[in-house]
Amino acid sequence: MRIKALIAFLLLTVGGGLLIGSVSTPDQWYQHLAKPAFNPPSWVFAPVWTILYVMIAVAGARVWSKDLETPVRLWFIQMILNFLWSPVFFVAHKPGWAIIVIVLMFCAIVSFIVSSWNRDRVASLLFLPYAVWVAFAAYLNIMIQQLNG
């Protein structure tokens, strides 16, 4: 893996995540939503996403450095959807639309895992915790929509 690629992917992923997080923080609307009992406390999200973003960046840099066209394309698709979800949910206050975004994101993540599995197993494995977290977040998003729909 090239160091320049890793730095670029870390800046894009972690930096982008910080930027999106700063402009789409949970507001009063979110505070007043009914949430399921398994909703994690707010402080959990920042450290989990920071760790995941580092793992996502490393995976992206690996497939980029190996010039793996399909995994690279899927990496960017999932990242766009990842950065879209928070503004749709927290800024636009559209949890129903956010479900569509997060389901598409989960599909892109799983597609990345499958497409990179035989070509870069490490990149693929780095996406497994991300897939689990996004599946949980999707379930949480669906439950919030049902409780408040």
Any descriptors?
single chain, 149 residues, mainly alpha, Ferritin
Walk me through the topology.
Layout: H1 3-23, H2 28-31, H3 45-65, H4 69-91, H5 95-116, H6 121-126, H7 128-148
Helix pairs in contact: 1-3, 1-4, 3-4, 4-5, 5-7
Q: Kindly report how far apart the N and C termini lie.
A: 46 Å
Looking at the structure, the CATH topology is Ferritin
CATH superfamily: TspO/MBR protein
> Largest sheet, described in full?
none
Order of helices and strands: HHHHHHH
Membrane topology: Multi-pass membrane protein
InterPro entries: TspO/MBR-related_sf, TspO_MBR
Transmembrane segments: 45-65, 72-90, 96-115, 122-144
Pfam families: TspO_MBR
